[in-house]
């Protein structure tokens, strides 16, 4: 090896570099997971609003993430990935304070809901900044050839945090009341801000950048498939608590945990399948499994079947994002990587933003079980679109 050549990092060294960055995704999604299983019941039961309003309260966060994606991409590309994450953590800190204020004003339902919604919007913007910042930082640190691994570990951090946060939030509310949720969010964000201070970021890539509109057009076909497949996730996380209540069941938070555990196992065991079989084929296989899981949730006669369905849905959805993402990011230059990641993520955000009100309306008219049937049909549509994209790429 010549003196000019650098040693190639081992697979473990690359993974450790990625994990040290997606740690901040873990913190962000732990803050998202803590209230996710208890907020719908709080809005519906404690504040007295309908299931549609409960869905809108959750969906508002994802809508804010969606609308902030262009800003997140530009900030990451122009000012640096670390700056984007710092701004996101500051947003979570403020969201925690607003959530605390909302619970203290429970006697004034409309005011409490308004403050809670503002906190959810801030949390959504923070999610967008941290999500784009961490993946772009990982790709800049370990190279674009490790895109699938960067996206996958970021997903492991996010869904793992949801799996831990959802039941932890239930326990926290049972022991300390809803007031503890907002305080926990602010404390976690403050600790993460202290840890990130001395961590060096990657240099900003110089060069001509595509407009977000141009990037969006290149990414859109892949993002549409991601959006259709991801509505099942938004449906599960938003309405699983109310679905369980409608059946007289308990333990909805553990259903989210099963989803998260199966999601993580799938990524750990089968992430190499994307490079082995290609992004399209991996996505098609995963969408098939996800659809089966959603159908089981629709037909579930007991909590055991519901958990199996949630596990299959998590196992199937796990590789959809990185599999289609690998194909999508190929469509944009490295100078617009942040914009490409944010444009692709817009479609995931869109799925989560519309899942609440859309499936809330379905639940009001048909019942909670039918929301999973509708989500299964949308997942099947995503599978068909991915088949068309694969045929176009092979032509």
Automatic annotation (TrEMBL):
Pfam families: MFS_1. Residues 17-394 form the Major facilitator superfamily (MFS) profile domain. Keywords: Cell inner membrane, Cell membrane, Membrane, Transmembrane, Transmembrane helix, Transport. One of its GO terms (molecular function) is transmembrane transporter activity. GO terms for cellular component: plasma membrane. It is a multi-pass membrane protein. PROSITE patterns: MFS. NCBIfam families: PRK05122.1. SUPFAM superfamilies: MFS general substrate transporter. It is found in: Cell inner membrane. The chain crosses the membrane at residues 21-43, 49-72, 84-105, 117-139, 151-174, 180-198, 219-245, 251-270, 282-300, 306-329, 341-364, 370-390. It comes from the Bacteria. This is Uncharacterized MFS-type transporter NCTC7357_00205. It comes from Pseudomonas chlororaphis. Belongs to the major facilitator superfamily. YhhS family.
């Amino acid at each position: 090896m010549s003196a000019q050549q650098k040693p190639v990092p081992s697979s473990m060294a690359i993974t450790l570099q990625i994990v040290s960055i997606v740690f901040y995704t873990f913190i962000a999604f732990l803050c998202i997971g803590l209230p996710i299983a208890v907020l719908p019941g709080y809005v519906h039961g404690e504040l007295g609003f309908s299931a549609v309003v409960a869905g809108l309260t959750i969906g508002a966060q994802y809508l804010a993430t969606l609308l902030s994606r262009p800003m997140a991409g530009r900030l990451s590309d122009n000012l640096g990935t670390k700056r984007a994450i710092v701004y996101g953590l500051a947003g979570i800190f403020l969201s925690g304070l607003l959530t605390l204020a909302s619970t203290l004003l429970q006697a004034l339902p409309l005011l409490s809901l308004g403050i809670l919604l503002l906190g959810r919007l801030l949390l959504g913007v923070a999610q967008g900044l941290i999500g784009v910042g961490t993946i772009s930082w990982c790709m800049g640190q370990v190279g674009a050839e490790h895109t699938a691994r960067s996206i996958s570990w970021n997903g492991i951090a996010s869904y793992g945090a949801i799996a831990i946060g959802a039941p932890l939030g239930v326990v926290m509310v049972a022991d300390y009341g809803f007031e503890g949720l907002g305080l926990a969010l602010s404390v976690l964000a403050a600790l993460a801000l202290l840890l990130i201070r001395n961590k060096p970021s990657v240099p900003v890539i110089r060069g001509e950048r595509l407009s977000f509109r141009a990037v969006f057009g290149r990414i859109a076909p892949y993002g549409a498939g991601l959006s259709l497949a991801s509505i099942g996730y938004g449906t599960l996380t938003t309405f699983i608590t109310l679905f369980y209540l409608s059946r007289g069941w308990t333990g909805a938070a553990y259903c989210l945990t099963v989803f998260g555990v199966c999601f993580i196992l799938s990524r750990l065991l089968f992430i190499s399948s994307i490079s082995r079989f290609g992004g399209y084929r991996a996505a098609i296989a995963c969408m098939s499994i996800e659809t089966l899981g959603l159908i089981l949730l629709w037909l579930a006669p007991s909590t055991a079947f519901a958990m199996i369905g949630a596990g299959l849905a998590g196992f199937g959805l796990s590789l959809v994002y990185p599999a289609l993402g690998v194909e999508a990011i190929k469509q944009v230059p490295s100078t617009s990587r942040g914009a490409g990641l944010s444009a692709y993520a817009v479609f995931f955000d869109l799925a989560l933003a519309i899942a609440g009100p859309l499936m809330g309306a379905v639940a009001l008219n048909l019942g909670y079980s039918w929301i999973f049937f509708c989500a299964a049909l949308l997942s099947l549509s995503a599978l068909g679109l991915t088949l068309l994209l694969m045929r176009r790429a092979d032509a």
